[in-house]
C-alpha cells in the first residue's frame, strides 16, 4: 500500500447527458482506489434504478431536513428536483486515503469549491453540440420539453467549464476514462500530496513499502 495520505476529492461536472455518469461508472469498475458517493435526490426512481445504489430517493421534507442539519456536503436544485451529497461518508473515505469522485452539477461544484479548496475540478464536454443532442434524446429519460430546455441551456453551462482545472472530451468512452485516470494520477503525484509522502518515506526508511 502507498503511504497513507488523504485522498483526493475529484469533482466531475459537465452539461446534462454529456456522459459524466457513464465515465465515472467505467472508472470505478477498474480503479479500486476510487470511491464514489451515492447521492440523495427528491426525483423519482427511473426504471431499473435501486434505492441506495444509483441514489437514495427521499422526500422534499427529508431533503430540507438534511440541508438544515448540515448533513449535505453540497446540494443543488436541477429543474424541479434536489440532489445532494452526504458529507460524512465523503469525509471518512478521504481521511482513509481513498480518492472520491463526485459526479455533480455546476451549482454543487461551486459549493464544493468553497468548502474543499484542495479539490480537483474536471469538466466533461461533448465532441459536438449535435452529439450532446443525440445523447439527451437517446437516453430517453426526458420529455420533449425537458430536452429543449437542456439544449437551450447547454452553451451557458459549457462556458462554465472555463473555470475548471481540466477538460475531458467524451467522444470515445475508453479514451475519456483513461484521460480521467491520468488526471487523478498526476494530481496524486504532486509533492504536496502523495509525491511528498513518498520522498519522506524513502528518506526515513531507506525504501518504499510498495508503490504504483
Ligand atoms: P450524464 O451523467 O452526464 O447526465 P449519462 O452518463 O447519463 O450522462 O449519459 C447520457 C447518455 O449518453 C447515455 O445514454 C450514455 O449511454 C451516452 N453516452 C455516454 N458516453 C458516451 C460516449 N462516449 N459516446 C456515446 N454515447 C455516450
Topology:
Layout: E1 9-13, H1 20-30, E2 34-36, E3 39-41, E4 55-57, H2 60-68, E5 72-78, E6 81-86, H3 87-95, E7 99-103, H4 106-115, E8 120-125, H5 129-139, H6 144-160, E9 166-169, H7 173-189, H8 194-205
Parallel strand pairs: 1-7, 1-8, 2-7, 3-4, 8-9
Antiparallel strand pairs: 3-6, 5-6
Helix pairs in contact: 1-7, 5-6
The protein binds adenosine-5'-diphosphate (ADP).
How would you describe what is shown here?
With 212 residues, the protein is of the alpha/beta class. It contains 8 helices and 9 strands. It has a 5-stranded parallel sheet with strand order 2-7-1-8-9, sandwiched between helices. It has a 4-stranded mixed sheet with strand order 4-3-6-5. α1 (20-30) crosses α7 and α5 crosses α6. The longest helix is centred in the last third of the chain and has 17 residues, at 144-160. The structure holds adenosine-5'-diphosphate (ADP). Adenosine-5'-diphosphate (ADP) is lined by residues 14, 16-22, 135, 138-139, 170, 173.
Can you give keywords for this protein?
212 residues; alpha/beta; Rossmann fold; 5-stranded parallel sheet; 4-stranded mixed sheet; 20% strand; globular; binds adenosine-5'-diphosphate
- Name the CATH homologous superfamily: P-loop containing nucleotide triphosphate hydrolases
* Unique bound compounds: adenosine-5'-diphosphate
**Overall average pLDDT:** 91
Shape: globular
Number of beta strands: 9
Oligomer: single chain
Judging by the overall fold, what is the CATH architecture? 3-Layer(aba) Sandwich
Domains counted in the coordinates: how many? 1
What is the number of helices?
8
Low-confidence segments, given as residue ranges, are none
CATH topology title: Rossmann fold
The gyration radius over C-alpha positions equals: 18 Å
Task: Give the terminus-to-terminus CA distance.
Answer: 9 Å
What structural class should be given to the helix and strand makeup? Answer: alpha/beta
Q: How many strands, which pairing sense, and closed or not: the largest β-sheet?
A: 5 strands, parallel
Note the beta-strand portion: 15-25%
Amino acid at each position: 500500500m502507498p503511504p497513507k495520505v488523504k485522498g483526493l476529492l475529484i469533482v466531475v461536472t459537465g452539461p446534462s447527458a454529456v456522459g459524466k455518469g457513464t465515465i465515472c461508472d467505467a472508472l470505478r469498475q477498474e480503479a479500486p482506489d476510487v470511491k464514489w458517493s451515492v447521492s440523495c435526490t427528491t426525483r423519482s426512481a427511473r426504471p431499473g434504478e435501486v434505492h441506495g445504489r444509483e441514489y437514495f430517493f427521499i422526500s422534499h421534507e427529508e431533503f430540507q431536513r438534511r440541508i438544515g442539519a448540515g448533513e449535505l456536503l453540497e446540494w443543488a436544485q436541477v429543474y424541479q428536483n434536489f440532489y445532494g451529497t452526504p458529507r460524512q461518508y465523503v469525509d471518512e473515505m478521504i481521511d482513509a486515503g481513498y480518492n472520491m469522485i463526485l459526479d455533480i452539477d455546476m451549482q454543487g461544484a461551486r459549493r464544493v469549491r468553497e468548502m474543499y479548496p484542495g479539490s480537483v475540478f474536471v469538466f466533461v464536454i461533448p465532441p459536438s453540440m449535435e452529439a450532446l443532442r443525440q445523447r439527451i434524446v437517446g437516453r430517453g429519460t426526458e420529455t420533449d420539453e425537458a430536452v429543449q430546455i437542456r439544449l437551450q441551456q447547454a452553451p451557458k453551462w459549457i462556458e462554465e467549464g472555463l473555470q475548471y482545472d481540466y477538460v475531458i472530451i467524451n467522444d470515445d468512452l475508453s479514451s475519456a476514462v483513461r484521460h480521467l485516470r491520468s488526471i487523478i494520477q498526476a494530481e496524486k503525484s504532486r509533492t504536496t500530496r502523495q509525491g511528498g509522502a513518498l520522498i519522506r518515506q524513502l528518506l526515513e526508511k531507506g525504501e518504499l513499502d510498495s508503490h504504483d
